Amino acid sequence: MRFTKLLLVGAFVAACSQAQDDAPDASPVIAAERAFAAEAGRIGWVEAFLAFSTDDAIVLGAAPENAHEALSGIDPANRGDTSLTWGPDFAGVSRGGDIGFTTGPYNGGGAAFGQYFTVWRRQDDGGWNWIYDGGTNQRTPTTVSPDGEVAQLPLGARGAGSAAAAAEAVRRREADFAEAAAGNAGAAFADWMAPLGRMNRDDQPSATGPDGAEQLAGAGGVRYAPPSVVEAGSAGDLVFTLGEARWQGGSGYYQRIWVLTSAGWKIGYDQIIERALAEMDAAAAPPAP
Predict the structure, then answer these.
(1) Sign of CA dihedral 227, 231, 236, 212
(2) pLDDT digits over 5-54, tens only?
(3) What is the sign of the dihedral through the CA atoms of 174, 175, 176 and 180?
(4) How far apart are CA 267 and CA 173, in angstroms?
(5) CA distance 189 to 112
(6) Does this chain's domain 27-152 share its CATH topology with 163-284?
(7) In 10 A of CB 109, how many CB atoms?
(8) Distant-in-sequence, close-in-space partners of 82: CB < 8 Å, separation ≥ 6
(9) Domain boundaries in the chain?
(10) 269 burial class (0-12, 13-18, 19+ CB within 10 angstroms)?
(11) CATH, domain range 163-284
(12) Contact partners, residue 277, CB within 8 Å, separation at least 6
């Protein structure tokens, strides 16, 4: 009887241990970001953006658009410009090792500052290319540390089983989150943000965790449309989403990383890039966040 009890206790402890969240090794994604930034310093940021992006990569102009088409319209005078620097300080990767992200400060030659966000996809040859790149602006000058310490986002021990299952689950979570955020965005983030999740907004310092996200988002409502882009890793534990966001007096696009944790699906990263959406009905929008 005692031996049986010890076996049961041991099994319970093992199960609890397996349920603990931890951070898969994101060093391949971090290395890809650092190589991307180093190449921009060598050949110019336009050329590096082209070289490190997939053919279907997305950037935000007035709306989401193909990165290669957008880059083709860059003023030729900016070709070879090596003044843009950046480096990661927060990253995450799926346990499947096929999708990940990094974020951190950027500095445009001392004239433009902010926090970038890049989503990466592993290629068939084992290399990494980005599928989305964009970021928020800030007024305070940034300091870029190319080889600085990088915090990593924990995930649960198990994923949803497939990319399709994860994508479907996150679409449902986005709908539930949007319903909550329409009344009080800050309260919604307090419930849905991962403990080490990060949030960025224009002209504001980065926020970390549920309390920081609640404070930065504020008590006003934000209307989040269903995501137009959903990209999930094969392990079913990390998903990138992009869609429209509207609030009284403004509009733009949200970008998020969702991670499956021991407590369910949580937001590991969130940002809004403000853009004018011509079809917005300002009178019907909720109060400003």
Answers:
(1) negative
(2) 333 334 333 333 345 799 999 999 999 999 999 999 999 999 999 999 99
(3) positive
(4) 10
(5) 29
(6) yes
(7) 10
(8) 40, 41, 42, 43, 44, 45
(9) 27-152, 163-284
(10) buried
(11) 3.10.450.50
(12) 244, 246, 251, 252
- The answer to whether 285 and 214 are in contact (CB under 8 A) is no
Give the DSSP per-residue string, 136-203: EEESSPP---TT---EE--B-SS--SSHHHHHHHHHHHHHHHHHHHTT-HHHHHHHHEEEEEEEE-TT
Helical (H) or strand (E) element with 78:
none
- Assigned token pair, 209: 């965790």
137-148 pLDDT, tens digit each = 999 999 999 899
Tokens matching residue 214: 């609640």
The answer, as to whether pTM is greater than 0.85, is: yes
3-class DSSP state of 80 = coil
Q: Are 116 and 135 in contact (CB under 8 A)?
A: yes
Q: Are 176 and 196 in contact (CB under 8 A)?
A: no
Q: State CA 247 to chain mean position distance.
A: 21
Q: Which CATH number fits domain 27-152: 3.10.450.50, 2.60.40.10, 3.40.50.720, 1.10.3980.10?
A: 3.10.450.50
DSSP 22: B
